[in-house]
Amino acid sequence: MSTPLFTRPDPALGEFSVRPVDPSGDAELLHGWVTHPKAVFWLMQECDLAAVEKEFTRIAADPFHDAFLGLHNGTPAFLMERYDPAHRELVGIHAAAPGDVGMHFLSAPTDTPVHGFTRAVITTVMEMLFADPATRRVVVEPDAGNTAVHALNKAVGFEIQRTVSLPSKDAYLSTCTREQFLATRGDHR
């Protein structure tokens, strides 16, 4: 188990932290998450355990893509990916500017949902990304049909730029600057 790279205390829900995914050590856990019906937009529904481990091993070796396991009070609770949109996902679709960072996140499936939990997860993800002073804007491309994530994205400052056609989906290309995110937190620096 590696040391967290980022930690954020949440006044209502406790501590959120993020560490790199261990492709072999976390594969079984992540397989259960990405193949769960709730994770349909993750596009890994048909993957077996070996395919999940292979995918996260591929990400770990990619200089333009990272995967992180998010913990809530020390327990695995979400998955986060960070990528360089100039080299992955949006090449030829989005004119990436210096300081652009792509992101995906997935909250673990649960039978006991906690009010405000997913909002706390996306807030943690955004705070981690913006903790890097080089990050100026976060770029996402959620499935156009994923209404739940569109509401969350809007709540943390994302604006839909346009609908784009990707190989696996029609997506809402959306961006959020540091200033837009801080404004949703009540910080108007």
Provide structural commentary.
By secondary structure, the chain is an alpha+beta fold. It contains five helices and eight strands. It has helices at 23-34, 49-61, 117-131, 147-155, 178-184; strands spanning 6-10, 14-20, 65-72, 75-83, 100-107, 137-140, 159-166, 169-177. An eight-stranded mixed beta sheet has the order 1-2-3-4-5-6-8-7, sandwiched between helices. α3 (117-131) links the parallel β5 and β6. α1 (23-34) crosses α2. The mean pLDDT is 92.
Chart the SSEs and their pairings.
Layout: E1 6-10, E2 14-20, H1 23-34, H2 49-61, E3 65-72, E4 75-83, E5 100-107, H3 117-131, E6 137-140, H4 147-155, E7 159-166, E8 169-177, H5 178-184
Parallel strand pairs: 5-6
Antiparallel strand pairs: 1-2, 2-3, 3-4, 4-5, 6-8, 7-8
Helix pairs in contact: 1-2
* Number of helices, counting only DSSP H or I runs of 4 residues or more: 5
Give the averaged pLDDT, no decimals. 92
Basic shape: globular
Radius of gyration: 16 Å
**Secondary-structure-derived class:** alpha+beta
Strand fraction equals 25-35%
Order of helices and strands: EEHHEEEHEHEEH
Order of strands across the widest beta sheet? 1-2-3-4-5-6-8-7
What is the β-strand count? 8
Low-confidence stretches are none
Quaternary state of the chains: single chain
Distance between the termini: 36 Å
Helix content: 25-40%
Largest sheet report = 8 strands, mixed
